Amino acid sequence: MIATLLIALAAGCASALMFASIISGALISLLLFYLAPLPLMVAAIGWGPLSATVGGIAAAIGLGAIFGLPYCIAFAVTVAVPAWWLGHLALLGRSIASDVSSADGAAPVAPDLEWYPVGRILLWIGAFAALTTMAALLTLSTDADAITGALRRFLLRMLDLRDAAPSAETERWIDALVNIAPSAAALVAMATLTLNLFLAAKITATSGRLHRPWPNLKSAALPPMTLAALCVAIALCFTGGLLAILAQIVTATLMMAYALVGFAVLHTLTLALKSRAVWLGCTYVVVAVFGWPVLAMVALGLADAVFGLRQRYLQGRPPPLPAS
Q1: Which of 107, 156, 258, 314 has its CA 20 to 30 A from that of 176?
Q2: Which parts pass through the membrane (predicted)?
């Protein structure tokens, strides 16, 4: 118990320091800031959600005492709560078979466990990314024009154009950046939360602290109603005002979720290729370098949701599964 408590406090201290490093303004602090949930997620998956709860509370109180209440609330909402809940979901399972004794008196059959689906965890990650982005925007104002103006002033300050009159071309670029800023922030939040959870699971699996089998990520799928929610969110993007901005955030997170499913589809459809590693590696490099090719992964994820590409492929030509 004492060891678990010490681990929880150490995870909380590490997470708080990584979160507070953004104050320094150094470039490396941005990476540390985005990885702030990682220590608490490792504690949650390796030592239980209660460990992440203790560490998160201690870290939030420490940040509040040093930097003030806003930092305490920001850490709790963006780091501690997502790390605790996602770690809880990663270990959530239910029995799908009751203990049954064999007729010849043999030992009872141990029940199988059904673990919380990866696709639903992706939805939770998207929900946290959308809610934290919305909360950040609503701290600026509840009026769409005021939010746009605040984002515009922030961009002008970043580009050091507060005193000089920007050219027409620069104005168009700034307007475009202001329009996509909420969606881009939601995408970054979802990508970093997903990466943190994946790294935390890998770390605990490597150390032998992962108390569940490694999930089959190639079979990850979103619930069917997600597609209907995406259609509604896209329709609301054309309403205008604050509702349109919030709908854009939801649309961005759901499309990112389908992009991640698209990668799972790609891993399945390339199982039989001899040069599979090369194709997958090139795809990840192209997406990471250029960014916009992720739209192809979104399309692949949506096509699988509508047409069942993986199911058709595996039924028509079941390939030999690789060992790893």
Answers
A1: 258
A2: 59-85, 121-140, 176-201, 221-247, 254-272, 278-307
What share of the chain has pLDDT > 70, as a percent? 90
How big is the chain, counted in residues? 324
Collect all residues with Cβ–Cβ distance below 8 Å to 16 and sequence separation of at least 6: 36, 59, 60, 62, 63, 75
Instruction: Please answer whether residues 239 and 247 qualify as being in contact, where contact means their C-beta atoms are separated by less than 8 angstroms.
Output: yes
State which amino acid sits at residue 25: G
The count of other CB atoms within 10 Å of the CB of residue 61 is 15
CA dist 319 → 12, 301, 315, 316 (Å): 45, 20, 10, 9
Query: Does residue 99 register a pLDDT over 60?
Result: no
* 74-88, 167-181, 233-247: range with lowest mean pLDDT: 167-181
Structural domain spans, the chain? 1-92
Coil vs helix vs strand at 320: coil
Contact (Cβ atoms closer than 8 angstroms) between residue 15 and residue 79 = yes
pLDDT of 10 reads 93
Pair 99, 111: CB distance under 8 Å? yes
Q: How far apart are CA 70 and CA 79, in angstroms?
A: 14
DSSP state of 26: -
Q: How far apart are CA 245 and CA 134, in angstroms?
A: 9
Closest to 178 measured CA to CA, from 194, 154, 142:
154
